[in-house]
Amino acid sequence: MTTETFEVPVGPLHVALEEPMYFKLDVRGDTIQNVDIFAGHLHRGIEQIALNRNFFQCIILTERLCSLCSNSHPATYCMAVENIAGIEIPPRARYIRVIAEEVKRIASNTFNVSLLAHLVGFDTLFMHLMELREIVQDIKEVLWGNRMNLGVNVIGGVRVDLDHDKITYLKTRLDELEPQLREAFNFIETHSSIARRTKGVGILDHDHARRYGVVGPVARAAGVGNDVRVTAPYYAFPELEMEQHLLPDGDVYSRAVVRTREVLTAISLVRQCVDRLPKGDLGIGYMPHVPVGESVARSEAPRGELIYYLRTDGSDGPARVKWRVPSYPNWEALRVMLRQADVADAAIIIGSIDPCIACTER
Question: How many other CB atoms are there within 10 angstroms of residue 339's CB atom?
Fold first, then answer.
C-alpha cells in the first residue's frame, strides 16, 4: 500500500460536474484523505444588483438566480415583502403557489436522479428519466407559458390563473407521468448496478448532518426531519396532507431514494391542490406601499430550506436583500462525505447534494 499522497484537481470545469466548482483532493492510493473546496468562479453580484431595482423588478431578478429552483426564489422573496407590508394573499393564490412549487420539485428531483444514473453508467435509465421530465416541462409550458422561469409570483398573489382546460391537462399528464416514474424509480431503489455504486458511499451520518446544518434531501437522508413545509408550513401546506421521508444511512443511495419519494409526494400535493382549489381573487389588485421594516421568509425549495432576509427603508426598493440557499450548508458537508471515499466516487458524491453554484455564489 502506497504512503505517498498526491493532489487531484476536480473542476472548475469537469465533465461530471454541472457547474464550475473546484475541489482539490488529497489522495493516497485510490482513497481521498482530505478535501479543499474553492468557490467564486460564478460570482455575479446579484445582491448588489437588487439594491438598484424596485420591489417588482426584484421578482424578475430573483427568478433568474437558479434554473431548477427558479420559482422558489421569487416566491420566498414575495413572502418577505408581504410580511413587511402586512399582506395576506388570497386563498386561491396560496394554492396556485403550492402547485407551481411542487411541479418545479418534480422536475428538479427527477433531473438530479437522472444525473446519478448517468454518473454510475446507467445511461438507458438516464435517458428514460429525462424523457419523463419532458412531460413536466410540457406541463409548465402549458400552464404558465415557460419551461423554466414560470413567472407565477407577484407581490400579493399570483399572475396566472388555472382555468378548467389547464387543470384537465394537468391531471391528464400527471396520470400519464406517475406510473412511469414509479417504474423508473423502482430501478433506482432495487437495481444492483446502482446499489454497488451508491450504497455506503459518501456517508453523512445523523450527528454530522446536524453539526453542519445540512438541509433538504441531504438532511432527510441522514434522518434529520427539517422540511419547512412540515415544521413551519406556509401557503396552503397547513391544509394539505404530506409525508416527510426520512432514511437513516445518509449515503448517496439514501439521498437519491429520498428525492424519488419526494417526487411522488409532490404529485400527491399537486393533485390535492387541484381538487381543493378555492374560488376567488389571484391577488390583492393594487400596488402596495412597503413601509420601513425587516423580514425573514423561509420556504422548502427542491434542494432544501431557502431563507430570504429583506430590509426596507420606505422607498420603492429594498435597502438590503440577502438569501441563504440550500447548497451553502450542504456544500461544506462534502468535506465529511468525500473523506475516505474512493476518488472514482467523487463526482457521484458531489452530485448527490444536487449543488447549485449559481445561487450560492450570489
Answer: 16
C-alpha span between 280 and 311 (Å, rounded): 31
217-243 per-position pLDDT tens digit: 999 999 999 999 999 999 999 999 999
What 8-state DSSP symbol labels residue 354? -
Give the start-end residues of each E strand in the chain.
Answer: 5-10, 22-28, 31-38, 153-154, 157-158, 293-301, 304-312, 318-324
Q: 87, exposed or middle or buried, with CB in 10 Å at 0-12, 13-18, 19+?
A: middle
Q: Are 230 and 253 in contact (CB under 8 A)?
A: no
CA distances, 138 to each of 72, 103, 111, 173, 328 (Å): 19, 11, 15, 9, 31
Domains (range + CATH), the chain: 54-360 (1.10.645.10)
**pLDDT range class, residue 358, cuts 50, 70, 90:** confident
- What is the pTM assigned to this prediction? 0.94
Cα 100 from Cα 72, distance rounded (Å) = 9
Instruction: Check residue 243 and report its DSSP letter.
Output: P
Cα–Cα dist 279/92, whole Å: 6
C-alpha cell at 343: 476518488
**269 membership: H or E segment, kind and range:** helix 252-276
Residue 214 grid coordinates: 445540512
The angle subtended at Cα 263 by Cα 67 and Cα 18, nearest 5°, is 35
Helix (H, G, I), strand (E, B) or coil at 27: strand
Task: Quote the CA–CA distance of 194 and 117 in Å, as a whole number.
Answer: 7
